[in-house]
Amino acid sequence: MSSLEQMYQQVIMDHAREAHGRGLVDLDLVQVGESHQVNTTCGDEIRLRVGLDHDTVASVTWEGQGCSISQASVSVLHELVEGQDLTDAEATMEAFRALMQAKGEAPDDDQEEILGDATAFVGVGKYPARIKCAMLGWMAFKDAIIQARKDQS
Ligand code: ZN
Q1: Which of 1, 32, 90, 118 is the most buried (most CB within 10 A)?
Q2: CA 48 / ligand 1 centre spacing (Å)
Q3: CA distance 57 to 42
Q4: What is the pLDDT of residues 70-129, one digit of tens each?
């Protein structure tokens, strides 16, 4: 294993051990959406709640269980998107989706800047079965935003 791979593995283990954004928070915001996603092939489960303040992703909290990749990935998601506006959050989601489809190929500098700690998941792209684990929280986030925006009316 290269030192870069070791570093990436360490990032994932750190996030799995000390997950950020864990624990659903009651939100006093107009637009709140929630999504529950299950990855049956691995047994991962995530319930994620998003609160929007106009165009800002004001809050992202979640609860879940499953493998360290699924839990670390949603922790990284929380770190990246909470506080972003919706346009930037979309770009972050898109960059992560592209990373998962890159079959282990390293992202370019622009993508890496958007992805931050999420770059550590690059190796997951080589294992189709694990991509579902890594994407689970991101799917929940995307769905929760749709729910939150419906809530507006
Ligand atoms: Zn999993």
Answers
A1: 118
A2: 16
A3: 29
A4: 999 999 999 999 999 999 999 999 999 999 999 999 999 999 999 999 999 999 999 999
